[in-house]
Please model this.
Amino acid sequence: MTILCVRFQLPPMYEAALPGLLGLLEEFTPVVEALPPDGALADLRGAERYFGRDAVELASVIRVRALARYGVDCAIGAGPGPMLARVALREARPGVTRAVPADAVAEFLAGKPVTALPGVGAATARTLDEYGLDTLGRVAAAPLSTLQRLIGARAGRELREKASGVDRGRVVPNAVSRSLVTERTFSLDELDPGRHRKALLSAAEEIGARLRAVEKVCRTLTLTVRYADRSATTRSRALKEPTAHSAALTRTAYGMYEALGLQRARVRALALRAEDLTPADQAAHQLTFDPVDDKARRLEQTADRARAKFGPRAVFPGTLAA
Model:
């Protein structure tokens, strides 16, 4: 077992601690892949040889250090490859590492539903279930031609390999900044849709400004609404084009909020997450020749300069007390 999949038990929207926790993993190996907002993959092959301990033993050290330095517990899955470590993580809990022995992969996977594999969605699962292929063991035993006829040539071949325990994935070191998130918390549970929209406007303005500051654009925006009873609703929407334009982000946020159809919901907080970030200079922008849009973008530039000089709260509208 050389790969760990770690999920840190971070409070909601507290991903600012993730870079430090990734640094903790990098004390053992430079091959760390961030999985925002609260997870990571770590390839410990070199660490096992260097420290003379296996991945499960090193996982215990990582857990102790995360608790001692950050007060954060973690759930850890361990396996021969990234996919198997991710599947193992589903059965892990804080304080216990769930490990998949290299010589028992088939037995570990056999009784699990096909949705246990990363990347297998509900639609694929329904299609397979109609033909009695409701577990990974049955998928692994099915003829390849049957799977390819049901879900396609490439997808069928890859699914059969994964169900059989063949893990061709690898840990790809990356940066943590694959997403940006901001939250607006109301001092009292808020029923007024007008104040909800004002909070969304403020959050979208902040997300846009932060994206422009790091010269990134996002392809997806996610809205999370947290209610007084501690439940939450999350919706995601792909943008028409990658953008850091606050007006476009605001329109998308408003659209997701209105689609929820909230009726006098007691809202505790609203959060926006910009995802699928890419460098701004690699993104194409469709010219509109709209003077209103041009004016809005010029105002954004002015606002960005004001934020840099006077601080964010001087510009973001509707900023609420936490």
Notes: The radius of gyration is 23 Å. The chain has twelve helices and ten strands.
